[in-house]
Amino acid sequence: MPPTVVAVIPARGGSKGVPAKNLAAVGGVPLVARAIRECRAARLVTDVVVSTDDAGIAAAARGAGAMVIARPGEIAGDTATSEAAVRHAMDSYEAEQGRPVDAVLLVQCTSPFLTSEDIDAVAAAVVEDGADSALTVAPFHGFVWRDADAAVDAVAGADATADGGHGVNHDKSFRPRRQDRPQDLLETGAAYAMDAAGFRTSGHRFFGRTELVRTDPARVLEIDDPHDLARARALAPLLDGPRPGALPTRADVDAVVLDFDGTQTDDRVLVDADGRETVAVHRGDGLGIAALRRAGLDLLILSTEQNPVVAARARKLKVPVLHGIDRKDVALKQWCEEAGVTPDRVLYVGNDVNDLPCFDLVGWPVAVASAHDVVRGAARAVTATPGGSGAIREIAGWLLGPSL
Questions:
Q1: Please, how many CA atoms are within 13 Å of residue 378, restricted to the half-sphere of its CB?
Q2: Which of 158-172, 173-187, 204-218 has the lowest mean pLDDT?
Q3: Both 51 and 169 in a single domain?
Q4: Which of 333, 258, 334, 346 is nearest to 301 (CA)?
Q5: Domain range for residue 166?
Q6: In CATH, what number is assigned to the domain containing residue 394?
């Protein structure tokens, strides 16, 4: 019987550096869903488990095909260790599934460019090559310096003297050429594998013989602050390449149903002294919708608000509209029946919690980048563009190609 290899993805909801970080979209896919996708594609991984304390992350994880284990509050705070989350997930998995874990992986979804090949490599080091633990590393050629003043203050107190900065992995008086220095390896923070029994005994991810699995240094990026996230989004088109199934194409979709407020607008309403309301829309969205219509897709605008603005915009776009709808899911189901459209082949675009029932009905629930955290978590794909700023044009590009 093949070994049981469980990939655990710790994903707290309380990130401070980047709020709702684990649901942030890179390449149109939430970080937690990217990690799940690569784990599920790995040859040796038996099951993928997300340990979280957040409802939005849990919804995203289930939507991406992972098991979800609710993390207790005592191991979900800022000082909680990843090891604690992994141990709890292992125990919960074994209790639920009724079988022991042979090897456990710790996979960090804040490393957006981790690949299934990397995951398989650390798993294979343990289950096939006999290592006790393994981790991803990348070649590193830099000279590391340490501020001696800070180090002395921390160790000896403020009265100690220091000589300024000093080299950590080199003697500052001797700077050998790169080819003359030993090869340093940087821990990427992306993926770790451990023999399950050894991990329980040691309580730490590094024990026994630790195998170093080399990865592509171009893919090493950990998202800790907004600048890291912006860099990841810029790199995604270069590093992701074509990944079947990550985003919908025309072959996946027969109809596109659009929410209005917050999806085709930025969710703001301007009200004049007479109570008249106006909103701002994006011309690019109009071009995208026209292209979808020409491509033969069925289109519908579905809105809770009963508003002349919605009707006027629908007339201009030549798209049918249902507005003033309390139960959008009921209206959507009825529309699908009347239009002869299979719900599994509907792409629904939304931004707020009243869109969630529709998300449950369709094959392609899509959230705009500015959507509520829970909505982004429940989406199968997330735009990189906020609502009202061209998000619908971006989706049209997914379906019809970027040159439309």
A1: 23
A2: 158-172
A3: no
A4: 258
A5: 142-176
A6: 3.40.50.1000
